Amino acid sequence: MSEKIRCPWAGDLPIYINYHDKEWGRPVHDDNKLFEMLVLEGMQAGLSWITVLKKREAFRVAFDGFDPAKVALYDESKIQELLGNEGIIRNRLKLNAAVTNAKAFLNVQETHGSFDKFIWSYVDYTPIKNHWEKIEDIPAKTPLSDQIGKDLKKMGFKFVGSTSIYAFMQSAGLVNDHLTSCFVYQE
Q1: Using CA atoms, how far apart are residues 68 and 43, in angstroms rounded to an integer?
Q2: pLDDT digit string, tens, across residues 131-148
Q3: Nearest 5°: CA angle at 141, between 139 and 143?
Q4: Would residue 49 show up in a list of annotated catalytic residues for this protein?
Q5: Burial class (CB in 10 A: 0-12, 13-18, 19+), 105
């Protein structure tokens, strides 16, 4: 039996391989999961994704399962509690941004019916399927991620620069950036 061909970034760590094989690039339509992905991409800014991935379970506990309605109510004492939590990324700006983003996320849900409906409208509700042969060809951002980032900032979101938004689009499956040689690409 031949071994599966994966995108090279998946490496050989089981946590990374599992994330690559089962999550990254697969369309997500659950609002809480989309909120989690948006927050975690913001947390990743300036860090490696493996750092975030290893802390994801601790984040899920610390952030009440990434329920935006709960996170939106976090106050200074909750931020202090989070700053003391060694299981997560303890950056005050990023933690405050998560609370701000939860409030903005709830506003989007109220205005558009769901965040899913809102964010997927940017790609006409169908993933953009790219055809990259080499990892070097994959962009860090695109004109679409520029636009989404700008739109989200206007709505009050923080840590939603174009690069973070493109990474979010990749992880949530709005774009399929698996290499054409990768087994997930065809799936």
Answers
A1: 16
A2: 999 999 999 999 999 999
A3: 115
A4: yes
A5: buried
Contact 5, 131 (CB under 8 A): no
Average pLDDT of the residues in 49-57: 95
Q: Which of 16, 24, 36, 41 is catalytic?
A: 41
| Phi, then psi, of 32 in degrees rounded to 5 | -65, -40
Q: In the annotation, is 41 catalytic?
A: yes
For the question of residue 76 being annotated catalytic, the response is no
Give the CA-trace dihedral at 23, 16, 88, 168, to 10 degrees: -40
Is the entire prediction scored with pTM above 0.90? yes
Instruction: Judge whether 130 and 175 are in contact, CB under 8 Å.
Output: yes
Residue 141: CB atoms within 10 A of its CB come to 16
pLDDT digits (tens, 9 = 90+) for 81-130: 999 999 999 999 999 999 999 999 999 999 999 999 999 999 999 999 99
